[in-house]
Design a protein that fits this description.
- α1 runs antiparallel to α2 and α7 crosses α8.
- The longest helix is centred in the first third of the chain and has 23 residues.
- The protein has a single domain, classed as (Glycosyl)asparaginase (Glutamine Phosphoribosylpyrophosphate, subunit 1, domain 1).
- 32% of the residues lie in helices and 25% in strands.
- The protein is globular and about 45 Å long.
- Strands 5-4-3-7-6-2-12-13-14 form a nine-stranded mixed sheet. A five-stranded antiparallel sheet has the order 1-11-10-9-8.
- It is built from eight helices and 14 strands.
- By secondary structure, the protein is of the alpha+beta class.
Length: 316
């Protein structure tokens, strides 16, 4: 889905591409819409694009339905390690955390890395040490583990004899936004893939892969298998296509097609450019997404599915 240019602020949110069971589709789409609406309310309170993508991401990190924050997948040891990135298109300032433990809202911690250090990314022990230094709250590991994530992990341990559909590992969350001052921003957050090696870092916290934002062109947040996304730096590739004159929808399609052709891998992206055009595209079965601009919210879950409602008609 894509929209025409507008002078209104725009927020687009995704809840991760993959294959969603029927009993989870409606509720996951509802939560993504809530996040987009709350992010848009932050615009109305004077928030910047950076504030808005952080707000929307934190809402989804706090929702156990998604593979981020409180609903994260488990690594080979049955533990949660989370990654996140946030990027300001005005300055290109970026903050990221990788393989960090006991953190429910890695997007907020990533913003602190951006604003309170001279670095772009902190990982594992260093990220935890920084969190303690700035007084960032930690949570018990068990608070981040859902029964669904534990069952998925147990299934994956038997994958050699009972193959598991890789599309089921959905749930990485993200947001992109354009504010009324022409600033764009992106944020992406994930618990990674089930049963990975301890310390595995995917695309999410890597600038240009999990996300990218530049006021001169636009912002992108990606979701999919990190190892493939990193090989083509998918977020930056889509921004490059926009720099060459493509619309967000055209750039997203071109980037996803290249990933699929070159590496036989599927993914999803949300994109906004610096004039307010936006797109939500994916090559998996599903990706819950929502976009808000003006007085309208757009949303979808399946390929080609688009719902449109006036904001005042929605009670969430």
């Amino acid at each position: 889905m894509s929209a025409m240019s507008t002078s209104n602020p725009v927020i687009v949110v995704h809840g991760g591409c993959g294959k969603y069971p029927e009993d989870r589709k409606e509720v996951c789409l509802l939560e993504v819409k809530k996040a987009a609406l709350q992010g848009y309310r932050r615009f109305r309170q004077g928030g910047s694009a950076l504030d808005v993508v952080e707000e929307a991401s934190v809402i989804l990190e706090n929702c156990p339905l998604f593979n981020a924050g409180c609903g994260s997948t488990l690594n080979e040891c049955g533990e949660v390690e989370v990654d996140a990135i946030i990027m300001d298109g005005k300055s290109l300032d970026t903050g990221a955390v990788a393989a960090v433990r006991n953190i429910a809202n890695p997007t907020k911690l990533a913003r602190l890395v951006m604003e309170q250090t001279n670095h772009v990314m902190l990982s594992d022990r260093g990220a935890s040490r920084f969190a303690k230094t700035v007084g960032f709250p930690e949570v018990p590991m068990e608070a981040l583990i859902t029964e669904r994530s534990r069952k998925r992990w147990q299934q994956s341990l038997q994958a050699a004899s009972t193959p598991v559909d890789p599309q089921i590992d959905h749930g990485t969350i993200g947001a992109v936004a354009l504010d009324s001052f022409g600033n764009v921003a992106c944020a992406t957050s994930t618990g990674g893939l089930t049963n990975t090696l301890v310390g595995r870092i995917g695309d999410t916290p890597c600038i240009g892969s999990g996300g990218y934002a530049d006021n001169q062109s636009g912002a992108v947040s990606t979701t999919g298998k990190g190892e493939a996304i990193m090989k083509v730096t998918l977020a930056r590739l889509i921004v490059f296509y926009m720099e060459q004159g493509m619309s967000p929808a055209e750039a997203a399609d071109a980037g996803l097609q290249y990933l699929r052709t070159r590496l036989q891998s599927n993914a999803g992206v949300i994109v906004v450019n610096n004039t307010g055009e936006w797109a939500a595209k994916f090559t998996t079965d599903n990706m819950p997404w929502a976009a808000v601009t003006g007085d309208t919210i757009y949303s979808g879950m399946a390929l080609g599915e688009v719902h449109t409602s006036a904001i005042e008609d929605i009670s969430l």
